[in-house]
Design brief:
272 residues; mainly alpha; 10 helices
Length: 272
């Protein structure tokens, strides 16, 4: 019964999003930005007459995955709050729908949308490699496969944000505030690192840098986008142990945030 309910909810949401223009606009924008980066890279090769990177398509792929992930985390972050705001969530829960059914249907819907976007991405980069002779390498295939697990992290994180809020506006503000805080801490930590050795900076700044280093390490396990960087680093380093470890971390991360989402939704209820 639970599986049937999840499947019905999944189908309803999946078709709604699949036929929306925003989904394809996000994919198009990601390809547009990647094409711009690739053009600059190819122009540089023509000017210098030398290939300066062993992985020329990895940076454009990284940008593509970031843009698609941003779209999916926003979609996930407003998915529950939108239904709360519209009142449809309360109607659904009068039937045989549980928080688990509802959230897992959202998770699998957004994950499948991400996988379809990755398929478009694979075709796009194959065509790019064919017409530019840059090569569609095994590293690129590994990075695309890693993308499935990275999207899983992004979706589960977005659903957790949505489970906390009652309205679309609150969800977007909360998401932007959290991601903005992550970026601000990363920027501040990078700026303090650039000040030089410990002997050259004041004691308060030294304490601040040390504190931010601990916070930054924590963010690397909380932010879903940190898994994207680690995953692609593992591909570039050609380390199977790091690659497989990152997949395991992504799965654990997704399960933890889905469990938190279900717990939060059960505690908070269905009303806005």
């Amino acid at each position: 019964m639970a599986g049937k309910v999840t499947k019905t909810l999944f189908k309803r949401d999946f078709l709604y999003t699949l036929y929306s223009w925003g989904y394809y606009a996000a994919i198009f924008v990601s390809f547009l930005v990647s094409s711009f980066i690739l053009k600059n890279f190819i122009d540089g090769i023509r000017e210098e007459d030398i290939l300066v990177s062993a992985y020329p398509l990895h940076q454009p792929l990284y940008i593509t995955l970031v843009i698609i992930s941003i779209y999916l985390v926003i979609v996930s972050a407003i998915s529950i709050s939108r239904e709360r705001e519209q009142g449809t969530l309360e109607v659904l829960f009068y039937g045989p729908v549980t928080a688990g059914n509802f959230l897992w249907s959202k998770y699998f819907k957004d994950l499948l949308l991400g996988i379809i976007a990755l398929c478009f991405t694979a075709v796009y980069f194959y065509l790019v490699s064919y017409f530019t002779n840059l090569g569609f390498t095994i590293g690129l295939v590994k990075a695309l496969f890693m993308g499935i697990f990275l999207i899983s992290c992004v979706v589960s994180f977005g659903l957790f944000i949505s489970s906390l809020t009652g309205r679309i506006r609150s969800s977007v503000i909360t998401l932007l505030a959290i991601l903005g805080a992550f970026l601000a801490i990363q920027f501040a930590y990078g700026a303090l690192l650039g000040l030089g050795e410990e002997a050259t900076i004041s004691l308060p700044l030294l304490y601040l840098r040390q504190t931010l280093s601990y916070v930054f390490q924590g963010i690397n396990w909380i932010s879903p986008f940190a898994f994207l960087s680690r995953g692609l680093d593992a591909v570039v380093l050609e380390s199977w142990s790091l690659y497989l470890a990152n997949i395991v971390y992504c799965l654990i991360y997704s399960l933890i945030f889905m469990a938190l989402s279900i717990f939060t939704m059960n505690r908070r209820g269905v009303k806005a």
